[in-house]
Amino acid sequence: MSPLHFLKPELLWLLPLAVLPLLSHGVKQFSYPSLMNWPKDVASLNVRWAIRAIAALVIISLVIAAAAPFTEGGTESRIGLGAEIVVVLDRSGSMSEGLKGRDYNRQSAEAGESDAHFLSKIEAARAVLLKFMQQRPADTFGIVAFNASPISVASLSSDRALAEAALLSAQSQSTGFTALGRALALALDYFEGRPYTASRLILLVSDGDAVIEGEDQEILKQAFIRQRAKLMWIYVRGEREQSILDTVIAGDNEIITAQDMAYAARQQMASMHQVFSQLGMPYQAFEVDSEQGLNKAIQAVSNATNQPTRYEYRLPRKHYAHYLYMLAIVLMGLLVWIKQQEIVVWQSSPSGKSR
Amino acid sequence: MKQQWIDYRIQWKPTGHQSGAMRGLSAGIGDHLRALALLRDYPDPRRLDLRASLRDPFERLYVRDTYLNTALKLIVLVDASASMGYVGAVNRWQVAQDIAAQLALSAYRTGDAFGLYVAHQSLIREGTLPPRLNRSAWHWIQQRFHHIQPQGHRIDGLIHVTSQLPRKRSLVFLVSDFGWSESDIKTMFKKLNHHDVIPIVLEDPFEVTQAPKQGMAILQDAETGQSRFVWMRAGLIQSLAHKRLQHQQMLQQLSRLYGYKPFLVHGQFNPLALTHYFMERHT
User: Fold this and answer.
1) pTM for the predicted model, two decimal places
2) CATH T-level topology, domain A77-314
């Protein structure tokens, strides 16, 4: 039991008012010639003290209720199931390229000649993510789509229809620049102000092709630590791209010249995979080069987020004023009833009633 | 106020030489034969007893000697302690005034001396009327009585005033509610024991019989100022009546010890009832 606090403790100075019922008569007073022959009546005495006690209790409870007592709720260790997943979907131009293995017969696919039709990376990602969302009814999803700048498409909520619509609306568009850092920051912002009740995951679906600046790295690192979010990168690999696990600049397709080589070496530190690895938060990367691979990656994601989260739930303050008000109301009702019993005229009325 | 004569009567013979309405003990003009005397000894030919004179062989003349019809001294002692100021169904002090006034009127009509003493812890001078044949006492009481404010809870003045009463036996009305302790009543009766005392007990219907049957109130003792919370209910009323009865029995027993009989005034004073009381008193 945590100690009792008061919102307005200064009101407690009114507590001495509780002595009032002891001072005043409260009940109508009649002159009587001599009480010498009045029998000693213990019941009357008890009733009197009971009335005084009730009246004092009413005042005490009203004063204390006005002072608004509460106890801090404290924290409770809870186990959260499900996860809060923010899908950060890359809709940069490169995402419209074909998935590895599905890229070759674009023309024939568009012409309707081939079964193994062309499948762009974003389409594949969308389809799989939709399926994933439908499989995970307990999770909360938020969607951030980004190319040149991140768009908060669907904030983190249990509104599943919104998230699905947001996902479907994400179309690839080339703008020449991919704001990965800001997208991640926005995704992390989704967690801001929310109680930590479930494992948090930022599911980055991207094909690389983005650079995170040094300062941003630091900011992101701090944000990840603060929000206690995990990062998973589903690297949707196209036909021509390198493996992220190679120490080459992610997202760049070809290394042609020595100048480029040098540039790549300079940017080596900025390579996404390495950057993420160094951010100091739980990080996993899945390299996906086909739809089956994407499914597999999603499977891995669900496994990772299925683990229950232990978290400290901060319980709300417990206010006690209303109990005291209730008590006061009940007691005051009792007092009103007692007041009704009061003798108004010291005389027995013909009906035998005192009133 | 309706003037109604209280026909009080006594079974004893008052001493004294003031002529009045009661059979006295001294010789004088009256209607009760005391003895026959020779005219020679009592030369009053108006009271010649012809029968006795004729019957005498020596033809001496006899006169009747009668007991003097003697005037009585009627004294009213009024308790002026605070409880006498109680106003319930009736104003108790007003009732006391009625009693005193009626007695004063009756005493004058009967030709008796009337004295009034009002006292609480001390004698109240304004309420004192020495026992004299007093024509206007009735009016005087009506004028003065309500100026007196009953107060205090002691009757020391009343006990003390007994020493100022006439030494010869008088008819003393003791008007009070008798909410006294047993020892006070005893002392009072003992001090008055050579008088013929009629304790007039004033009682208010609201005190007991018409007290509320249920409910709560605070009662304040008019004398001590103590207040008491009471929860009226059947049980309490019963024990109250019982306690009251005990007190009345105590008063009755003490009265009997001295040969008195209390007269209860419940509510308003009815002079006729007091006359009835006198008729029944010694039968």
Assistant:
1) 0.64
2) Rossmann fold (3.40.50)
